[in-house]
Amino acid sequence: MSNIKDQIEIIDSYMESDVFSLDPEEFLDQMADHGAELNGYYEHERLKKIIRKIGMPNAMVVTVFYFWNDQLIHVNYKQRQYMERRNEAGQVVMDYSNAFTKFESDHFFNKGEEIDKKVTGKPVDNVEPEEVFVSYSLRMKALLDNKFENRSTYETLQGKWVNVRFPDEHMIFEETIRFNFREGKFLKRLKVKIKDSIMYCSSPKDEYVYKYKIESLNEYELVVKDLQDSSSDLVLYKKEE
Question: Which of 70, 90, 151, 162 has the fewest Cβ atoms nearer than 10 Å?
Fold first, then answer.
């Protein structure tokens, strides 16, 4: 416990971390009522902390995951209940800009096992406290690590790319999401994961994974090969400002 507390203090002392984010669709099964975000903080090429915020109907749930040598060591979980205020009509409504911590739990881990837990307060109505953190944190870590390791590729892909052979087709990359268009009409939204120069594009609707080999990429041109069709030609895209 003494070592873990020292490690937490060291992690919190970092001032110039590289920050990488996940799109809400990557870490939520359904969209949050009042917004959601998940940010990973890197120091010395390693993930040290994840801060996740989920806006529930009556509370903001804030969870902070701490990592040391790629292992989860601590989780701080808070339910911050929204304050109430009266609007111009005199009605009592939620003030989503103000909240107070009604429930908090601290969990400490060693080699994937919880070794201590501290709880204060009572849970917000209709918000069930989380208890399982290790498997979830490692899944989020894998997504963030992939984005961190392939950061230059993701950064270069951002923006609009037009198919040179079929100029009525284009795609737009925003973070790790790819939007396909044809003749100015939206076709499909796909999640993108890049590994070993392979672009994996998946849609939760059809549960199919499209695979493309990135043959070359710079800030002006993208050349890919469709791995589903071994006979297909290379496809050239030009970036459009």
Answer: 90
* Token output for 110: 């060693």
Would you state the structure tokens that stand for residue 208, as one six-digit string? 């199919």
Cα 163 to Cα 21, 30, 159, 169, distances in angstroms: 28, 33, 13, 6
pLDDT score at 25: 80
Mean pLDDT of 36-59: 95
97 or 41, which is more confident = 41
| Banded model confidence at residue 170, pLDDT cuts 50, 70, 90 | very high
Q: Name every residue whose Cβ is closer than 8 Å to that of residue 232 and which is 6 or more positions away in sequence.
A: 225, 226
